[in-house]
Each structure stands twice: as structure tokens, then as C-alpha cells.
Amino acid sequence: MNNDLKQVIFDYLSGIKEDPQVVGVVLTGSAGREDMDQYSDIDNVIFVNGSTTIKEGKFMLGKYLFDSRIVNIEEIQSNWSEDMFFAYLNSSIVYDPGNIISKIITAKREEWTTRMLKRLQLALVELSVIYEFSDNWKGLKTVTHYHKFLDRNDYISAHRILNIGFEIILDILYLINNSPIPDIKNKIRLLPKVKILPNDANKLVNEVVLITSFDVNDLNRRYKALILFVNFIKDNIEKSQLHISDNIYQYYLANRA
Amino acid sequence: MNNDLKQVIFDYLSGIKEDPQVVGVVLTGSAGREDMDQYSDIDNVIFVNGSTTIKEGKFMLGKYLFDSRIVNIEEIQSNWSEDMFFAYLNSSIVYDPGNIISKIITAKREEWTTRMLKRLQLALVELSVIYEFSDNWKGLKTVTHYHKFLDRNDYISAHRILNIGFEIILDILYLINNSPIPDIKNKIRLLPKVKILPNDANKLVNEVVLITSFDVNDLNRRYKALILFVNFIKDNIEKSQLHISDNIYQYYLANRA
After folding, report:
1. Can you tell me the distance from the alpha carbon of A141 to that of A145, in angstroms, rounded to the nearest whole number?
2. Domain ranges in chain B?
């Protein structure tokens, strides 16, 4: 973080600290992750204990667009959504006089690993209705919507469901790296940062994203790139020490929402 | 529904009815909507009051692949997820001796209209960070992730975020038709069934879905199709009697989760 921004944040915090209701402040988004560029907002969350007059929403401070959110401290003490795991486990705490925020985040980091295992298995089941696990890996073979759309000659729905399959694959790539899933806009941009990734991930991503025509050839081309992603994922799960069920479909039946 | 399937369902139900825990049975999915084809599963939900030995999951009955789910009746008496609204408001009740299921669904149909108004406004805010409301329609103008990706020359993330914008537009099209949002695989297939739709919706969908290269020209081509969708949506909201805030961004700040 450059000194100019540090100074702006320092000034911003000195105003906020005057409010006795404020428990802490964290930077989220790219400012929290320290992968900002000149187009980034300064996303931040102000945790309060009760009501406050501090302003919320977007406003300019110096040359930076701040996007501030007021959150009651009780909200992060209870259940976290997926986006909260990504936002807060990758945040920078900039004010936390009672160490309350830091304690919560540490506890949630533990909880994440358990949640990740469930999320990963449910994501594989979601994928199995798009990508066919023809070898019945971990009980995941079923008739896919993708192949039904092919049978119906509905090539536009087929392409679109491959898009959705690709989104699930992106999620799974983060999960096998024990990373919370980024907010939706960042899933491709942050991918190069994870450790376990196919060597030619860039090329494969391009291959899946392109949709050049509504016919079987173009669908086959994209599906082949998906196969390479899925084989990579299967190999890595096999090699890993992750506690994954031998029959993920059965796991899903017992654990779905 | 053909007579063969009717007979299979009749036989299936006669077994289920023997279990005194069963409160009712509904067909969901394409069987519930009566838009099945030869590739469709027979999705069905068996509502129970306590534990049962009826089997769940996928199995063949005659030439049909049944996909049965056991749900405790308490589950549909409490809060519904979005997928539940779509599944149950479009279901066919095939067994409901105490009229319990039918009463719940009728009450939830009322609830839907209120939820829809909230969902629609939140969806427009989600869209506003991808598609630029340059006229500041209903307070929605902001810097978009799409344009930031263009500025960064990150054309692959730009294409992908237009995909996400298109998914939001599909949701909004269902919402302005007062329809719950279909499960993800059906959003394109069921679109021709809604009433309020651009005349050239098919052509526009194709235009948005195609991604032929990673450059500004191809992005502009897709974005232009999005503009036409958004203009259609704005016009229809203006013409409608929907109770939508004049400043949707302010509404979002007050009503987000």
C-alpha cells in the first residue's frame, strides 16, 4: 500500500475512532488483499455495537473511492455466508482496539476447513449433472443436463450450461487450494494466485470461455477443455489427504440443504 | 401427461400412501410444469411428518427415471429458498389428502409478490456494477467492474462478467413477469414461456452468448445486445405498476442482507 493511501486511511480512521460505538474496522476487497490497482475501490467494513451516524456507501477521499459498510458486530459473530469467508479471511484489520475482530476471524478460519470439505463435495455433485463422470468416480456418474441438451439439439442451452460447469470448476479449484471462493467478479483474476493449478490453466480458461458457434463441434471443443480441468481436480483430490467420501452422491443425499 | 406415465405415477403413489407418515406428494420439475420430453426425469417430493422408509434418490419405474426426495413437512412451512418458490409454485400436487400442501403453496404464492419486488431491486443493483446505467436511472449509475476490466485490458474477465450480467438479466426478465426464477439449467429453455419479452429475444440471446474473440470489438458487440435487454427492462418497469423505489441504490443500502 502506498504512503498516500496509508495517510488517507489514517485520516479516515481518526474520524471513525471518535465514535464510541465502533468496535473495529477492516479493509476488504483488493485493499484488504493488497492487490489493488488504480481502478480499485477502498472497500471497508466498520463494525459497530449499536447505532452510529458514520456514513455508509460510496464517497471520494483524496483520489480514492471509498465504499464503506456499517455492520453490527453481532452479524459477524453468527453464521457466515460464503462471501463473508472470502472477504474477511482475506481482509486487513486496521482498527481493533479490543482484539474482538481478530479473535472472530481466527475462529472462523478454523471453521472454514470443515465447511470447505462439505462445499467441495456438494460442488462436485453440482458438476456431475453437467460434466459426465463416465468412470463413476466416487459415485458421481449420472445423466447430465449437458448431454440432454445435446440430445435435444438445444445448443444454446448446452453452451450456457458449460459456462455454469466452468463456474463450478473455478469454485472447486479454489476449494482444493483450501481457499474461500472469491466474490464472483474476481474468480478469474485471482486464479493465478492459487498454488494447485494446471500448468496450462490460462490456455484452458480461454478455450472454455470462447463460444464461436452453436454446433456440436464447438461444444466438443469446450467440453474437452473441461475434461482436462476435471481430470486435474480428480488427480489432486486423490493425491491429497482431504477427507472426501468414497461415494459423494450418497454424501450429498445425506448432507444437502 | 400421457396415460402410460399416469399409470406409473398411480402405481408409485399407491405404495407411498401406505406409509402413514406421508402428508402429500408433488411432482416438481418438468413433470410438475407439464413440459416434459423424453429426456425428462420425474422429479417428485414426498412430504412426511416424521421418519419413513420410503426410498429417496434416482430409480427406474417402467421407462421413467424417477428422482424422489423426502422432505419433512416442517421444512416447507418455514422460509423458502428461491429454488423452492420456482419448484413448488410450478408443481403439480398428486397426493394431498389433508389439503396441507395446497394451503401452504397458496399462502406462499402471495408471499412471492412481495419477495419479487425486493429480489428485482437487488438484482438491478447487482446489474449496475456490470452494466452502466449511464443515465443514472433510479440512482443506479456507478463505475462498473466491466469497464474496469476493459481499462485493465483484462478481456477474459470482461467477457465473463458480461456472462454474469446476462444471467442477472435473465433473472430480471422472469421477475418483471412476476415469475419465480427457474433453476439454473432451465433459464434459457423456459424463457419463451414468459409474456413480457423483447420481440427479438432469441436473436439477442444468441448475440450475448457468443464469444468469438478476446478483444474490445467482440465485447462491444455483446454489450450492445445487453443495452437492448436493459432498455426493454427499464421501459417495462416504467410502464408497470410495480412498487419500485425511485432510488434503487438507496433501497439496496437499507435492504441488503
Report:
1. 12
2. 3-98, 112-255
The β-bridge relationship of strands B42-48 and B22-27 is antiparallel
Please give the radius of gyration of chain B, using alpha carbons only, rounded to the nearest integer: 22
Does the beta-carbon distance from B37 to A163 stay under 8 Å? Answer: no
Q: Chain A to chain B, count of Cβ pairs less than 8 Å apart? A: 71
> Residue range B244-257: average pLDDT?
91
How far apart are the CA of A224 and the nearest CA of chain B, in angstroms?
A: 17
- Taking contacts as CB-CB distances below 8 angstroms, the residues of chain A near B185 are 129, 145, 157, 161, 164
Test A209 with B211 for CB contact under 8 angstroms.
yes
Cβ distance of A164 and B154 shorter than 8 Å: no
- Residue range B109-157, pLDDT digits in tens: 999 988 999 999 999 999 999 999 999 999 999 999 999 999 999 999 9
Per the CB < 8 Å rule, is B164 touching A185? yes
What residue spans of B129-246 are helical by DSSP H? 145-151, 155-176, 201-209, 216-239
Q: Which residue of A has its CA nearest to B250?
A: A57
The DSSP 8-state label assigned to residue B50 in this structure reads S
pLDDT tens across A32-82, in order? 998 888 888 999 999 999 999 998 888 999 999 999 999 999 999 889 998
Q: Which CATH entry fits the domain spanning A3-98: 3.30.110.30, 2.30.30.90, 3.30.460.10, 3.40.50.300?
A: 3.30.460.10
Q: Chain B: residue nearest A160 by CA?
A: B209
Residues B43-97: tens digit of each pLDDT: 999 999 999 999 888 899 999 999 999 999 999 988 999 899 999 999 999 999 9
Using the beta-carbon criterion (under 8 Å), do A253 and B154 form an inter-chain contact?
no
Tell me how close the Cα of B157 comes to any Cα of chain A, in angstroms.
6
Of A39, A152, A210, the CB nearest to B151: A39
- What number of other Cβ atoms are within 10 A of residue B90's Cβ? 19
d(CA B66, CA B59): 5
**Chain B contact set for A219 (CB, 8 A):** none
Q: What ipTM does this complex have? A: 0.86
